[in-house]
Amino acid sequence: MDIQRMMLLTAIALLCARPAVGMADEATFGFESDKDGNGVPDGWTVAKGTPEKAVAMDRAVKKSGESALRLDDASEWDYVVVAGWADVKPNTKYRLKAWSKSQKTTGPTCIYISEYHASGRGRGLLKLHVLIMEQPRDWKEFEKEFTTTEKTGRIKIELCPVGFAIMHTGTVWIDDVKIEEIK
Question: Which of 24, 93, 117, 137 is most buried (most C-beta within 10 Å)?
Answer without folding.
Answer: 117
